[in-house]
Design a protein that fits this description.
single chain, alpha/beta, five-stranded parallel sheet, two-stranded antiparallel sheet, 7 strands
């Protein structure tokens, strides 16, 4: 059997240890890579393009909330990503699912539940906690915003994430290896799809997806 390669992206060493313990019961001596920042997580995937799974914390240095998930999904579309979070209300779980996560692990889960969730996703399934009725306080504007965000192309999603990091068009062009004119065209398309007039408003819109969660 081919060795499993799994990336744990979480800034809390104790929880990374708990995830590692769970993973050691899923497979014999899996290749586990730990990352304590979002940039280290990105580097880990780039160095391991055939990785089988990423366990991604929603709140870690270098990223805020669902921006990290969106950025990873855009850059590494074939990598299954499971969210791990201390915030596990119905709205947060649904947003993770709607934005492309393959599963969701609450940080309050026991090792057996974590193991079962990871096994399900590694088997090609999805795994999300069961919740009852939809949250009554769910904001229709956020629901609409998520639908608009889902219309962005992978490259547009990456550009939006970089805008949120405060990068200029010139810097984004350098990072993506394209011309500044191409980035300007992407920004224009993003503004149109999000129905906003400026890049600042686009970043504020993206931030609204994360406002309801404190992970």
């Amino acid at each position: 059997m081919q060795e499993l390669t799994i990336i744990i992206a979480d800034d809390h060493p104790l929880f990374r240890g708990a995830l590692r313990q769970a993973l050691n019961t899923v497979a014999e001596q899996p290749h586990i890579i730990e990352a304590g920042t979002f940039e280290d997580a990105r580097k880990a995937v780039r160095s391991q393009p055939e990785a089988d799974l990423m366990l991604l914390d929603l709140a870690m240095p270098g990223v805020s909330g669902f921006s990290g998930l969106m950025s990873m999904r855009a850059e590494f579309s074939s990598l299954p990503i499971m969210i791990v979070s201390a915030t596990d209300d119905g709205a947060t779980v649904r947003r993770a699912m709607e934005l492309g996560a393959s599963g969701f692990i609450s940080k309050s889960s026991g090792l057996e539940d974590i193991r079962s969730a990871i096994e399900a996703v590694l088997a090609g399934d999805v795994w999300f906690p069961f919740h009852g009725e939809r949250d009554a306080e769910e904001d229709p504007a956020v629901v609409e915003l998520i639908e608009r965000l889902k219309t962005l192309t992978p490259q547009q999603t990456r550009v939006l994430s970089m805008l949120a990091e405060g990068l200029l068009n010139k810097q984004i062009a350098y990072e993506l290896g394209v011309s500044e004119a191409t980035i300007k065209a992407h920004v224009s398309a993003i503004l149109l799809k999000l129905n906003v007039d400026s890049r600042t408003q686009a970043v504020i819109k993206l931030g609204k997806v994360n406002m309801a969660m404190v992970a």
